């Protein structure tokens, strides 16, 4: 059994504890409803996503001819309707913001150093921005007749030139 | 194994209390085994105690030890002691301290689940050592005892509770009233008292806060105990500081950090429904802000 104290009083050991009370400070209070809104958004977008994601899956994979119907013309057909354009746009933004806020929470949970936390979040926000901009652009500028050999009905009349 | 004991009559478990059975938990480099020198124990034959026929058994306590003056890293040590069916984890620790190694350090005061001094991690769960009977644990394996997680270890099983109490102080755990000093009792109806009854039971043991994975990685999170004690006043009809307290818990490190993991509710030795209390504070905040 080892004795833990300097019984000889020679002062031969240096106490490993630097100070009797390691200073612990609470961070500055934040005065905003940001986290409250984030929390609410996660739940409300979650409920909406439940409807939209499964509606999307149903229409694409089950209804009609099922999974075999999905090709260029199927997508072109859907996106020629403002209804599906709006549906996909909302789904894109909700899923993207929901996912980003979720991953932000996970980064807050797991990153131990402030620098790591900062850079992970920067990477996350960059990725979010790229996907949001690209996705929105595609939904609105999608040209079903990009392929000159297209046999789609919408393309036959206008594509003569 | 100590000479005074009789290996022949020992129960099958805990034989020699050696490396062979010391396999649970993440064991870093150094492991030491100790066995009771038996100076004062055992008083009687194994199996039963002459006094009242309480069954006795050998149990190996696997303790996470750290001496800041000697060690750079915490390490595990095993101690085998003879305990009785009425003994608790705390009794095993006291016996080890009294008979094997007096340097073993842990907090306890009341020894009856009231003061909240001896929360520790027993077999991976936060419990009060004084409320955990050894016979309710699997004593065929070493009983693993560690300090509670997420707070700096000072020595052996003693942690620095300051971060925990700092968060507690932040929510202003005292009655706030406006206006004149009371000239008579502040009357409260029984249903009004019932509203926050659950959260009055807290003994500030920190079992909940130190079981929360969010607190483990984010020491700034107020933690369940601070929210429980804020809840106790927020829902008290006599208190007039709930706006202040709610504003404090609306913080980035406040209730929104809670992920409804339920570890706190499982850990609480007072059986407080902590996750529910946190949800009620969230609800009150949303009702007030929107
Ligand atoms: C199907 C419908 C969905 C529902 C009902 C839903 C619901 C939720 C809720 C309520 C949370 C908050 C959990 C908490 O605060 O502890 C959450 C978190 C999260 N969600 Fe969703 N969500 C859905 C779809 C999605 C989608 C499509 C994504 C990916 C883009 C996603 C990614 C995440 C992530 C990364 C988190 C954070 C995980 C965590 O907090 O532990 N979710 N979800
Ligand atoms: S709420 Fe329960 S677990 Fe948390 S400090 Fe109070 S008594 Fe301990
Ligand atoms: S010693 Fe007081 S609660 Fe366990």
TrEMBL record, chain A:
UniProt-annotated location(s): Membrane
Domain of life where this protein originates: Bacteria
Q: Which GO terms describe its molecular function?
A: metal ion binding
Could you list this entry's UniProt keywords, alphabetically sorted.
Heme, Iron, Membrane, Metal-binding, Transmembrane, Transmembrane helix
- Which GO cellular component terms are attached? membrane
Claim: Membrane is one of the keywords in the record: yes
The record's annotation in CDD domains points to: SQR_TypeA_SdhD_like
Tell me yes or no: is rRNA-binding among this UniProt entry's keywords: no
Name the residues that span the membrane. Answer: 40-59, 122-142
**Where are the compositionally biased (Polar residues) regions?**
1-10
Broad class of the protein's primary localization? membrane
What ranges does the record give for the region Disordered, renumbered to this chain? Answer: 1-29
Name of the protein:
Succinate dehydrogenase / fumarate reductase membrane anchor subunit
Gene source species:
Kineococcus xinjiangensis
TrEMBL record, chain B:
- What does the UniProt cofactor note say? Binds 1 [4Fe-4S] cluster. Binds 1 [3Fe-4S] cluster.
Would the keyword Transmembrane helix be found if you checked this record's keyword annotation? no
Q: Does the keyword 4Fe-4S apply?
A: yes
Q: Which GO terms describe its biological process?
A: respiratory electron transport chain; tricarboxylic acid cycle
Q: What class of enzyme is it?
A: oxidoreductase
GO MF, one term, reads: electron transfer activity
Which catalysed reactions does the entry list for this protein? Answer: a quinone + succinate = fumarate + a quinol
Q: Where is the 4Fe-4S ferredoxin-type domain?
A: 192-214
Question: What Pfam families does this protein's entry cite?
Answer: Fer2_3, Fer4_10
* Cofactor(s), names only, from the UniProt record: [4Fe-4S] cluster; [3Fe-4S] cluster; [2Fe-2S] cluster
Its UniProt pathway annotation is:
Carbohydrate metabolism; tricarboxylic acid cycle
* Gene3D superfamilies, A to Z: 3.10.20.30, Alpha-helical ferredoxin
Annotated EC: 1.3.5.1
* Annotated ranges, domain 2Fe-2S ferredoxin-type: 57-151
Per UniProt, the keywords (alphabetical) are: 2Fe-2S, 3Fe-4S, 4Fe-4S, Iron, Iron-sulfur, Metal-binding, Oxidoreductase, Tricarboxylic acid cycle
Annotated region described as Disordered, given as residue ranges: 1-56
By sequence similarity, the record places it as follows: Belongs to the succinate dehydrogenase/fumarate reductase iron-sulfur protein family.
Protein name (Swiss-Prot/TrEMBL)? Succinate dehydrogenase iron-sulfur subunit
Query: What species does this protein belong to?
Result: Kineococcus xinjiangensis
